[in-house]
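User: Some background: our group keeps a shared notebook of sequences we're curious about, and every so often someone picks one and asks for a predicted structure to add to the entry. Today it's my turn. The entry only has the sequence so far, pasted here. Could you supply the structure so I can complete it?
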Amino acid sequence: MDKENRMLDARILQGQGYTQAEIGAMIGVSDRTVRNYLSKPPLQRVRPVRPSRLDPYKQLIVEQLEENPSYNGELLYERIVNLGFTGKKTVFKAFAAQVRRRVGATAVQRFETEPGRQAQVDWKEFGKQTVDGRTVKLYAFVMVLGYSRKPFVRFTTSMDQPTMLACHVLAFRHFDGIPHEILYDNMRTAFAPDADGCWRPTKRLLALAAHYGFTPRHCRVRRPETKGKVERTVGYLGNNFWPRMEGLALSLGGLNADVMSWLGAICGKPLADFGESRAERFARERGILKPIPLSDFDVRQPVPLIAGRESTVRFETNRYSVPPAFIGENVLLLVHPLSREAELIAGGASIRSFTLDQAGSHSIRVDESDRQAIQTRWARDRERIAIRRAPKRRVRLAVDVEIRSPAAYEAFAEPPATEVGVW
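Assistant: Of course. Here's the predicted structure to add to the notebook entry:
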């Protein structure tokens, strides 16, 4: 401490204009010693680091908030208390706020994925539109390959899970291959939070991923830049393609045909960042994608129904005939979300396949193979009912009866009792 105080005094005296020799004389050291003092930077006092009761739990807090910066603080505090934290809540809140600020201020680093490694998925909403003569909500499913930026777009009128899975199948066909992993945001049809607030893939998405051999990954909540490639494509779809549709009579089939033509055009244009087009980069990426399985994943939505007394099932206000043998039985209707192709299943066997009528049209469709069987069944049922309702008549049998006099029955009477004398 004496040496440190001398150094501080030397600096103070130097600031007051004294020479090194004068400073040495004033503090009792040689001018050479003063020169050595002043040539070194001033030492900073190191404060001792005191241990905190929060130290064993800081890593858990950091990992959770880096995974989900908006994770509920009360829930996180309860978790560390259950693990044994006995410190003050204010200490936890101060540290959690510090971590949130650091995570939120983290610089965004652009990264490139190798060919075939990753694809990114998102939805674009277009609000209510008149499509095929009906006012519906219109959406666009977008998948983009990370390396080549080659996109796939499919317009739909729903964002439910069967539609999302069916769009995956079409995208894999479009790319003629499958990336090793696919990145999603917090769309509930793909990922959902568990009881601990961690996002997990849904069962149907896991089944799709197992069938095609890719890994579903979830990007950080409120961090759209982690899937910036698909975000830019979604923005370009809204700013470049959609204005071309203004004033046109929209149909779902027409939109999907037009957007595929638009995709073909933009894939031939060079990318500013690379000096080559999406098509050129995809030519290198295509051979690295995983091959498509021989069979598609079954994305059809199962709808349980009961065959009514009229030998029909009812779906979306429309009725479809079934063989009369299934009246009163449970049947399963498998509906494809995009093509609206349907299949009736009963007893584990397929009854028939057909295309559904437009929802809400109140149509009745009777298959020709059912028509004669239904009429025969109705005739037999009417005959059975007629027999059951017919009045029942009593039938009297003709019997010859002999008329006799009452005296004829005296021969069958018992003889009178004989009196017995008493000895």
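Suggested note for the entry: The radius of gyration is 44 Å. The first helix runs from residue 2 to 15.
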